[in-house]
Amino acid sequence: MTLPGVENMPGWPAGAAFVGFTYLDPQVGVSAKGGPEGMPNVADQPIMTVRDPHGVALTAQEVAALKLPAVPTWLQHFGPQPDANAAWRSDPHLQGRFAPGFPDDVQVMVHDGEPRRVKRQVELCWVRLVAQEPSPRRLLIQNKDATPLSPQQFDAAAQGRALYRGRLLNTPTQLHDVKAGDELLLLSGAGVGHPVMVTPEYLQQRPLWGIQPCSTCGFSEALDPPLVLVKTRFPDLKPDEAMEHFTSFCPLGCGGMQLFSLERTQ
Questions:
Q1: CB 11: neighbour CB atoms within 10 A?
Q2: Which of 34, 36, 65, 77 is the most buried (most CB within 10 A)?
Q3: SS3 of 208, please?
Q4: Does the predicted TM-score (pTM) go above 0.85?
Q5: Could you say which DSSP state residue 116 is in?
Q6: How far apart are the C-alpha atoms of 104 and 196, rounded to whole Å?
Q7: Can you tell me the distance from the alpha carbon of 63 to that of 42, in angstroms, rounded to the nearest whole number?
Q8: Average pLDDT over all residues of the chain
Q9: 94-121: per-residue pLDDT in tens?
Q10: Which residues pair with 148 in a beta bridge?
Q11: Please, which residues have CB within 8 angstroms of residue 165's CB and are 6 or more apart in sequence?
């Protein structure tokens, strides 16, 4: 990258632009190391570090003309670097939610399950996204007569909703089942401002159920797999009985209601 305005610094070579390599410092965030344009070995032996740089990215032709390496030798000391083309960078549900200087860190609703069952509340914790995973079918119910969306309507409603894998960066204060360093699965586009943590069991059952988003906050997922919700609400249900439709208070505590409907076609 080049950095406009640096040429006005005392002692800077006249007319020389700053040429540097942008990277993520785990301690202080996005940074750049480099020096004056034309300085020998400017990439591997930088003389200047800039924090939170706002410069202009070099084209591949400019990098080749300046004979810059693809990756400088010192970068290994700062650990794994973010992928500028990672899917979450363009997820419309995550725009503006990443930590300043840490473009892969986002606050996620982390939990041990539905609060009414586990007696512990949802917490917002920082998660560093590391990969995108195949997203399950997430059927929504939006009609007043509780009929699910058609496949075409569903595809439009689900656009931009994705499943990611990330590493939990801080230990929750009152949850029992998750701790810092754990790898979590999370869904974006859950109808509220933050992604929500999900379990493999939830993802396995999710394609079988349509969910009508909360009537108050719009939350369109659940914190327990639907069959666990059924057992929690209907403990006397016999093994040979099935609950195909039921309502539930929103697990986020807003006082609204959600509707769950089992898809017969699955």
A1: 5
A2: 34
A3: helix
A4: no
A5: H
A6: 16
A7: 12
A8: 86
A9: 988 998 878 889 999 999 999 999 999 9
A10: 141
A11: 129, 130, 131, 132, 133, 183, 184, 185, 186
pLDDT-derived band at 266, boundaries 50, 70, 90? very low
Please check whether residue 88 is in contact with residue 131, taking contact to mean a CB–CB distance below 8 angstroms. Answer: no
Tokens of 219: 């939350």
> In angstroms, rounded to a whole number, what is the distance separating the alpha carbons of residues 253 and 121?
9
Condensed to tens digits (0 to 9), the pLDDT of residues 24-72 reads: 887 887 788 988 888 888 889 998 898 877 777 788 888 888 888 888 9
Flag whether pLDDT at 13 surpasses 70.
yes
Structure-token pair, residue 122:
């949802």
User: What is the Cα–Cα distance from 47 to 230, expressed in whole angstroms?
Assistant: 63
Radius of gyration, alpha carbons of the chain: 24
Domain range summary for the chain, segments of one domain joined by +: 2-78, 87-262
Q: In this structure, what are the phi and psi dihedrals at residue 152, rounded to the nearest 5 degrees? A: -70, -45
pLDDT at residue 86, as a whole number: 85
d(CA 162, CA 164): 7
Residues with Cβ within 8 Å of 235's Cβ and at least 6 positions away in sequence, in order, are: none
